[in-house]
Amino acid sequence: MQIVPYNTQAYDLLHNGAICFSEIHQNGIRVDSKHLKSEYKRLKKEVKKLSGKIETFAEAKLWKGKYKDNFSLNSDDQLSDILFNELQYESKKFTDSGNPSVDKEALKALKSSFTDYLLRYRFYFKLQNTYIKGLIEETCNGFIHPFINLHTARTFRSSANSPNVQNMPIRDPEAGEIIRKAFIPREGMMLMGADYGGVEVKAAALYHRDPTMLHYLRNLESSDMHSDFACLLFMLSDLDTNNKGENRLRKATKNSFTFPQFYGDYYKNNALGIWEWLNFSGDRIKKTEGPEIRGGITIGEYLINKGIKTFDQYVEHVKKIEHNMWNKRFPVYARWKEQHYKSYLKKGYVTILSGFVCQGSMKKNDVINYPIQGLAFHCLLWSCIRIHKLLKKYKMKTKLIFQVHDELVADVHPKEEKTYSELLKQVMIEDLKRHWKFIDIPLEIEAKRSAVDGNWFEMEKAFTYIN
């Protein structure tokens, strides 16, 4: 499969993007080397301690006895063999090839002390030996200079290496704190991150034009898709996101149902993800489990009262919500996916609104997702190029230092904060919509900033701008 520009505007986007990213690479990111070395030593001790504990389990003794000198706590193939062939554990999740999965979600679902310890060991081992070690090795004079590439990702997103700052485990609370605290601004400056809110959902809507989805996107202050689906998934009449427990239900819905469904996932995996978000254990719901909702009742007890008592029953419930999503809520979106794929089978390619062609052998989900993910990233890339040029034109001290997912991160001089904030709003929303007139729905940016001489972890809301 390859993606190529079919007009000069698209070619210019790549050409100017490569130049922009090379200059951002030269800017570099300041890191707290003392913090990184301290965490590396601490995690090394934790890994050794957990390894010793794991080897006292009967499962580990069986594992070690079978594989002898080849025994490795980091081998997925060995673990799968021991759990599902030797010990006959029942898997709730499978890989694309039909084999039992041993990813984090699948292992947590087993609710075994052995796998819980093993997950903790693997988490610390990878954090120490992949992420923190990688940052330490790439640090030079207190800075890292990651390469940001435009030629490696299949969807024409960017990628990063030396080190891969786009693959840091920042969404896990513990890992996120350790890693983000290592990223610090230049002395006397602050970090500011600007993130396109829900940009891939909006990019998808520019293709399928589903009226229900467009209504959600054009009425962000009065409608909330994730809350609506949370009400269906948990059989609630409404959702109060100011309630801590109910806000968690919305997050579980967003991360384990709504977005995964858009990317082609299916109901059983969604149910498993929600099960994990709610901290349910085993195959049966307990009244004491899950976040507390209004009325002082847990969501576990609430679901039991509604007749959902087991994981299998909940899977069937999620299956019905999946049917509702595509047959009642977003039928135009569903039809577009089928028609889009049929067009690819006939022509052998699909186009991206930003001026590119995706051609060659692709799976169905790839055919649907690549144009969406490509366009979403191109919005960020176009904005990045323009912001970088304007910072140089006005000879500002503020510098773009890296891009990760849908976020641009900069070292911002305190005296330039207001000017830079207005620049973000103007370029990422107003200028982009004038450049690509097919963007006829509101765009949103969410900006956060650190204190002067703060760090990437201790960021607070700076502003939200929608237009």
Oligomer classification: single chain
Mean of pLDDT: 94
The CA-CA distance between the termini, in Å, is 36 Å
Q: Determine the fraction of residues in helical runs and give it as a percent range.
A: 40-55%
Strand segment tally: 14
Q: Could you name the ranges where pLDDT drops below 50 across 5 or more consecutive residues?
A: none
Explained architecture:
It is a single chain. This protein has 467 residues and is of the alpha+beta class. The protein has three domains: 2-31 and 152-200 and 372-466, 2-Layer Sandwich (Alpha-Beta Plaits); 36-138, Taq DNA Polymerase, Chain T, domain 4; 211-329, no CATH class. Helix content is 54%, strand content 12%. The strands form five sheets. Strands 11-12-6-13-14 form a five-stranded antiparallel beta sheet. It has a three-stranded antiparallel beta sheet with strand order 1-10-9. Strands 2-3 form a two-stranded antiparallel sheet. The longest helix has 30 residues, at 364-393. The protein is globular.
List keywords for this structure.
467 residues; alpha+beta; Alpha-Beta Plaits; Taq DNA Polymerase, Chain T, domain 4; 3 domains; 5-stranded antiparallel beta sheet; 54% helix
Protein topology:
Blueprint lengths: L1 E4 L2 H20 L1 E2 L2 H22 L3 H10 L8 H11 L17 H6 L3 H26 L4 E2 L2 E3 L9 E3 L11 H8 L9 E7 L2 H10 L2 H8 L6 H10 L9 H19 L4 H11 L14 E2 L3 E2 H7 L5 H19 L1 H17 L1 E4 L3 E4 L4 H30 L5 E6 L2 E6 L4 H19 L8 E6 L10 E7 L1
Antiparallel strand pairs: 1-10, 2-3, 4-5, 6-12, 6-13, 7-8, 9-10, 11-12, 13-14
Helix pairs in contact: 1-16, 2-6, 3-4, 8-16, 10-11, 11-12, 12-14, 14-15, 16-17
